[in-house]
Every structure is written in structure tokens, then in C-alpha cells.
Amino acid sequence: MLTVEQIESFYGPSQALFGVDLQVNHGELVALMGRNGMGKSTTIRSVFGLTPARRGRIHFRGRDITQRSAHRIAQLGLGLVPEGRRCFRSLTVRENLVATARPGPWDLQRIARLFPRLEERWGQSAQTLSGGEQQMLAIGRALMTNPHLLVLDEATEGLAPVIRQEIWRAIGELKEQGLSILLVDKSLRELMPLADQCVVLEKGRNAWTGLPTELSADLRDRYLGV
Ligand SMILES: Nc1ncnc2c1ncn2[C@@H]1O[C@H](COP(=O)(O)OP(=O)(O)OP(=O)(O)O)[C@@H](O)[C@H]1O
């Protein structure tokens, strides 16, 4: 589905990634992990062409997307739920969802089934939603593009426990439905039962890759600080 090979990415003269590798197979949920500032968001930004990789290769569904524009990459079926839940604040929930819609199995009805709480607020403007509801809307917007791969960057960060539970339940349902998912999150307890593979970054490099069950206390302490 997605293969990232030895990418190196920069912010101006400052190098953030020093040869990151990553693979997401069809139907897999891959957790991208690491402490703050280790390069998780930059890896995602590079996959989406937002901080294009200067070296290395990124393939998505057999196509080389390394040099493609962000717009073209999204069209190929990569759905992003960015850090900071960007929605059109003055549009209603429904309008936000319709704005990103592309043909496929995901439509308003299916989003309503996944997040009943959102359906109750269809006519409200996005700016009146709570942080958790905005996050559900951000996930809904990404799903409405009918992606082959859904990428979530810190989808549960800073949310109330009950809302976090709802979002983890939804992510679990998406995985059960066979959607391929790449996810950045620090909630180990929720991630561990869902993840097929963990990729840990440190200082812009791969530090460890393996099964969640292999992520020992020692590794957690060394790479995640937990
Ligand atoms: N816009 C930017 N301009 C310059 N440097 C940046 C920018 N964004 C990130 N960096 C730097 O790139 C490196 C990787 O940051 P990145 O945001 O990818 O880490 P992260 O693992 O996602 O961290 P967090 O968990 O805090 O989101 C850090 O050294 C960071 O300071």
C-alpha cells in the first residue's frame, strides 16, 4: 500500500529526517511512534508532499509519489487527518463533509453511523463543536474522500477520556472493515491491541520496528519515555 524508503526531509537548511523507512501493507494498522520532535509529523508531511522529501523514495499503490504535488497525492487516495483538526470553521458539519466528498462507499449516512454524535450536529457550524467533535469531523472529512489509506496524526491528543474512547472505537471499526491505517499516537494502551506493526523514530531515524507485543518495558523507556 505505502512504502517509504530512506527519505530525507528538510525545513529550509535544517534536516529533520535522515533516511526514514516505513511500510504499510493492505489492511494493516501501523503505529508511528517516538518522543516529541523525533520526526513523526515530518514523515507524514513528506508522504503527503507537504514537506517534500529531498532524497529517498515514496511509493503508494505501486506509483512513485515522491515528486508529486500534495493535491495529486490526495487524489490518489491518501486521506489525512492532520494534527490540529483543520476544518472550515464557518461551514456546517454537513457542508464540511460534503466539501471533501469523492465517489466510493463512504457517504454522509456511513459517517453518521460511525459518529452518531456528529449527525446530531449536522446543521451546526464547525466552530461551535467541542475539540473532540471537531476531531470526529476531521476524521469524517478524510473518510469522505474515500481513501485507500487513512493517516491520522495525534487524533486523540488532548481530548476528554470519553471522547478518546469514541475515537478509538471508531478507529477499531475502520480497521475491522479492512481500511489501511497509518497512525501517530502516544496512547500505548489503546494502540497496542490494534497495531499490526510499530515503527519507532528517534532524531529523524528509524530506531526500532516490530510487533506491539515485542515493545518491551526497556524499549518503551528508551524510545518513548513511558
Ligand atoms: N516548520 C518547521 N520548521 C523548522 N523545523 C521544524 C518544523 N516542524 C518541525 N521541525 C523540526 O523537525 C524535527 C521533527 O519534528 P516533527 O514535528 O516531525 O516531530 P514529531 O515527532 O512529530 O513531534 P511531536 O510529537 O511533537 O509532534 C524537530 O526537530 C522539529 O523541531
TrEMBL record:
Keywords: Amino-acid transport, ATP-binding, Nucleotide-binding, Transport
GO molecular function per UniProt: ATP binding; ATP hydrolysis activity; branched-chain amino acid transmembrane transporter activity
UniProt keyword annotation of Transport present: yes
CDD domains cross-referenced by the UniProt entry: ABC_TM1139_LivF_branched (cd03224)
One GO biological process term: L-amino acid transport
InterPro entries for the chain: AAA+_ATPase (IPR003593), ABC_transporter-like_ATP-bd (IPR003439), ABC_transporter-like_CS (IPR017871), BCAA_Transport_ATP-bd_LivF (IPR052156), P-loop_NTPase (IPR027417)
Every ABC transporter domain range: 2-224
Protein family membership: Belongs to the ABC transporter superfamily.
Designated name of the protein: ABC transporter ATP-binding protein
